[in-house]
Write a structure and sequence with these properties.
Blueprint lengths: L10 H12 L8 H13 L5 H10 L5 H14 L2 H9 L10 H17 L3 H10 L1 H4 L2 H15 L2 H18 L11 H9 L19 H11 L2 E8 L11 E5 L4 E3 L7 H10 L15 E6 L4 E10 H11 L11 E2 L6 E5 L7 E3 L11
Antiparallel strand pairs: 1-2, 1-4, 2-3, 4-5, 5-7, 5-8, 6-7
Helix pairs in contact: 1-2, 2-3, 3-4, 4-5, 4-6, 6-7, 6-9, 7-9, 9-10, 10-11, 12-13
Length: 361
Amino acid sequence: MPEYPTLRIDTLSLRNHFQQISAKATHQLATYQLVGLARTTYYLRDPQAASYLRQAAQQQPITINQQIVSLNFYRMAGDWESMHACFQKLPPMPVNVSQWEQKNYAWIYFQALFWIGDYRECIKRFQQQALLQAMPRANMISQLAEARLTSNAQHALKVAQRLAMAIRKEQSEPWHNSPLNYWDLYELSCQLLDPPLSIDAPVLEPSPNPAQRLIELLQAHQIVALEWSIYNNNDEADEGFCNYHFADGSNAPFHQGLANQELERLVWNVVNEDWSNAFAGQQPYGVYRLDVQTAQISYLGMIWSSYEYEDLRAFAEFEPSAIPHPVIQHPVNQDLYVMYLPDELRPAVDLAHWNGEQRSY
């Protein structure tokens, strides 16, 4: 049986994000900022959340993709009348369109059925449409629909664990303006657990020295190093990863989670820092490592997916300088290839450079 999920919302980060957005009047906010305000207040359980969610729903573009977002916002606001009215306005299945357009419409309408609570039809469509069955996200939503239809706590537990891993892997925040925010599904799955799990974490006061606190907590958990990658300014790609390295020689990926909420959040933030600012002139993409004993961050080298590496090797046949150092498979992530720099060429900075925040992009 899967372990009980440990992922919780970091309420302190929610409050900080709310303060950043709420400095402006509502009418001055761009749509994405209003979405951030609505989602933040919802997860802060603010009485004004319903009003902000309705405003965010009404400001979404009229494309069918964004109408699904509006459906979910009305659901979060508890405005069932507006939610069903929005659903009734969805256009019918288009005819004589490309296979991609058919797949996109099927996926969008499938989500709409889930948000309005028509779980039977949602499951039926998944079972009947192979293109949905090929989508991991649709599979997860179908399982959650079945769990909610049957009130199956064990089924919901499996979905909750999958969602927790996805949130950690993509380092998704509750306020992110994405068409499908996994936090919403995670909350719905945790409500079905026995006993139900509240995803609201206790408020943790910010440490006056987050770097020192991070080192203390890593030491307490026998973690000797963190290793992570920064890829394309966003760790949501396959190349983005974060691993814990323990004193006994074992390692574990960040997305499996730790029970210590404070440590998890500090790690979440430190691997999202824009470390290229610390290494003057250094390529920001690649592999980084925090050595706990020395409290230093080192840039280890570049990283590629197997497909990218094949292209690089082909290019290097004509331009040998493209691969100046040996490239090996990553020792933990076998689908990745890393060009580790020699020790003497690895720049390093003290962890104290970090101010406890995460990058904003």
